[in-house]
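Sample pair:
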Amino acid sequence: MYELVIPRSVEKDIKKLPRQLQKMVVSEHLTSIQSDPQQGGFL
């Protein structure tokens, strides 16, 4: 598993989201990115 470093600006943006969406981002998406950061590929 990788260490996920979230910039303060991203934390602020996440806090602006509705509470339910915040929980989903943290529990599902950030955890997924932490386990495999290259899953989305590069543009």
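Residues 1-33 form one domain.
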